Amino acid sequence: SFSNSFLVPSISNKQGEISKFMNKEFQYNFAKENNIKMANTKVLNFDETAEINDSNIKFPCILKPLVSAEGDKKDISICTNVLELNKVLCYLKQKKYKNILVQEYLSVDYEIDVFGCICRNPAFISLIPTRTIRAYPPKGGTNSFSQIITDTSIIEKCKEIIKKIQNIGFYGLYDIELFVVGGEIFLNEINQQKKMEWENERCNQVLMRDYKINKKPQNNIPDEVRWAHFGGQPPFSCHQNSKSPGKLGGGNLGQN
Predict the structure, then answer these.
(1) pTM of the entire structure?
(2) Mapped to the 3 state alphabet, what secondary structure does 199-246 carry?
């Protein structure tokens, strides 16, 4: 059956919950309720008002689509004053955005991407935290080169956040962006967008992380992690897990 062959992200098997969790305002409220640090956030809804003059908005600020899947990454903008803000809002309104997320702009030490899988049977959390070394374009771009994080203190802090996501009933593959600011970890966003080639990369990275930390691949990784999104048929490099860690997919992880 479908359920036996695929691991599909879900929250307590409830229709629409994943879509709700894609909304960054929902993520911000989730973070506040669970004592997870996150930049101050508010949502601006476009109406007939020509300009915004909100004293609660701190500058510099960053503007983002409220739901990543419904917006364009190129529309992410940083504003240093209210004039710049209104100019960007006018542009976004012309592009038919109905609302926009406005966040406090953090002075980030570095970014962490955490991806992995939350399983139910057996209960298991896999995670591969990576430190972003380069992004393209340099400002507001996508991670283009990373280094696997093996610092156990950072891994545990990441796991604390993931456990809180698990506690709301989430299971499946995840992709989380975190910021390190003055030694503290801030949640940036939880991504639910998936691409098939990423799953091959994630699968290989689970094994590579085990290899780097333990010097040998572990054999107790649930098949649910190794075979996620492959219809019950693992990719070739993952199928080798009992003998070798496999190759890194995508070529975007640094060697250390």
Answers:
(1) 0.73
(2) HHHHHHHHHHHHHHHHCCCCCCCCHHHHCCCCCCCCCHHHHCCCCCCC
